[in-house]
Every structure is written in C-alpha cells, then in structure tokens.
Write the structure tokens for this entry.
Amino acid sequence: MGGHLLAAGTPLAVYDPVADACAPLVERGAAACATAAEVAAQSELVLIVVVDDAQTRAAVEACLETAEPGTVLALCASIRPDTCRELARSAAAHAVQVIDTALVRGERGAEEGRLALFCGGPAEVVDRIRPAVAPFAADVVRVGDIGAGQVAKTANNILLWACLRADVEALRLGRALGVEPAALREALALGSGANRPLEEWGKHRLRWPEKDLAVAVALAQEAGVDAPLVAELRALLAELTVDDLAELA
C-alpha cells in the first residue's frame, strides 16, 4: 500500500514497531516516524494497518494524542464492529473522525494495487478519502454507518473460506474419480459452481482463516444467529496447508 502511495507522489509518513518493516518505504522517500503519534501529528489521513482489536486500540489512542481536528483515522484491520464504534466515540471528543475501512482482496490485492475497502462511517468522510487511497484501492464501498465495513468483511471472509474448503473437497473427489484437478477447475469455471478462490487457485497463503472465523463465530453467537457451517469451518480450515492446495494444482 505504501509503495503504491509513494509511486503516485503522495507524501507518506510511516511507523511500525519493527523498524525494518518501514525501511523499504523510507528508502523510497517516506518519512520515518518513531511512534504512531508522530505519524498522526503530520497526517490528514492515518491508515491503521495492524492485526487485531488490541493493536488497533493502541494505535488510535496514540494518534489521538497529536492528531489535529479533522484528521481521519481509517481502521484497516479485521476487527469487531463494536470496537469501531467505541473508537469513533473516543475520537469525536478530539474532533477526529474514525471510519472502518476493512481491506478486502488480501496481500495480493495490496501488492497489485487493487484492494477493495469496505467502509463504515459518514458518507462525506468516506468520500473524502477516496482520492487519497486510489493508488492502492480499486474499489471503495461505503456499506453503512461505523462498523458496517467490518460486518461486510466478516461476511466476505465466511464466503471466502467456505468456497476454499468446498473447492478442496470437490477437487479431491474429482481426482479420486479419475479427473485431474486442472481439467476439473477449467470445467468448473464455466459452471454455476465457479468462485474466486477456484479461479485464483494456488495463490492462497492461508494466513488468517482462524482469526477471521473466530470473529465470525463470536459475532454470530452474540447476535443469536445459528451458523453451524461457520463453526465447522474453523476446524476444517485448520486442517489445510498451502501444500494441500499445491497438491491439487
């Protein structure tokens, strides 16, 4: 994401607890910062790209120490919708805007500059960030109020991992019955069972299924929604490795 911003000529300030993570961007002209607060002090838009709710909270708290009124903090990690709402309320006391901008299309989407952002928050704030994120985001979709982007991301994650597991079982069955996976994928791409994981076979890195599905299970339980497939997917995805996918190439 940072690389695409720099290539577009966007002034960029960066911070990561692991200093080496920022080195390639600093070499290309990004300003190195010692803290998240330092980033916020010189930014109109702060992209908070971390792992989970705890890291997001810590980053937002640091940014609020120095962010000017009107600054936008964009929560890019897959986190709980109520965390987004909580942080938006805290930021409002500082006249700072918080929106959720959940990243969709994964690491490959970031590398290729074609991420989709599922956004929750005021329409005018989402519209305000569109030009800034254009170098790395092909699509910016406002789903609803704060937290709605995370709901959409969770739904997307459920479908992603469900399709991937179903693809594995279908390809294994086909191979056992004498049809090579490559030939079967070509045929399935033309049918009603076509799906993006099948289309992009061999590119999946399986980094986040446990985290994604844990969030989905928790939200379903809290909402009182029966989601047995989602619950089963956690164990079924835990069994899979990148090597398993490669065997079906």
